[in-house]
């Protein structure tokens, strides 16, 4: 009995210490965002919507942008209790017009921008590269590489003029480890991780911070996963962990399970790692096929 009491006391003490560390990180990270207006792209669902929610609940005004205006209006309505200004700006960041109109809107806004979360992205069904439809992978390259690079540079110019700002690029842990069957997605995310790391080093001279967020699996509509579990972090959990963790590095995997898995994978030989993740990708392909079929069957029933 005495040993149980000691164990419980030690556990509680450790949890209290960890909570204090996380709270201090969160306070310090939020302090880096000098201005109370932030921008979130890909804000109509998933990770983007969770960033909007987190910022609003912490007293930031939010400019949210995505293609689906109705979804954004619903999110805005759900956050009325936060008493902050939420602006919905529909845009398609797969186009030059979408990127340029958003940048113009942000520049013309009557408040300086504290943070910009670049979350717009596309995923696709796991498939061998030789079977990849060209129209699909060119869309991914266009958005993740071409248009996001434009956005990083143009918002970077604004932050450089302000001499402040935090640019958050939602990338992926698959950009740190190569991932068969999601090879184009993985390669474009690797490009973004590399770009953010380089730009962050340059931006230190004028007081701007760049961070690449690199999760593995997140329960969002993009992954056909509605419920979080040990491996699939909820988008709210991911965002909370991002703000409560250290921002010392320019690429971060916020959820501890993902961070641990990435370390394990990177400790393996390339041959063993590739065999392992390829097997995982094949299992994911089967799981997604079942999930997709189930959703389609449900949709047919409702017609």
UniProtKB/TrEMBL annotation:
Give one Pfam hit by family name: adh_short
Q: Which GO terms describe its molecular function?
A: oxidoreductase activity
Domain of life assignment:
Eukaryota
Tell me where the transmembrane regions lie.
6-22
Per the record, GO CC terms?
Answer: endoplasmic reticulum
Print the keywords alphabetically.
Membrane, NADP, Oxidoreductase, Transmembrane, Transmembrane helix
Task: Please list where the region (Disordered) is annotated.
Answer: 277-303
Per the record's keyword annotation, is Amino-acid biosynthesis included, yes or no?
Answer: no
Q: Which residues form a coiled coil?
A: none
How is this protein named in the record?
Oxidoreductase
Q: What organism does this protein naturally occur in?
A: Hexamita inflata
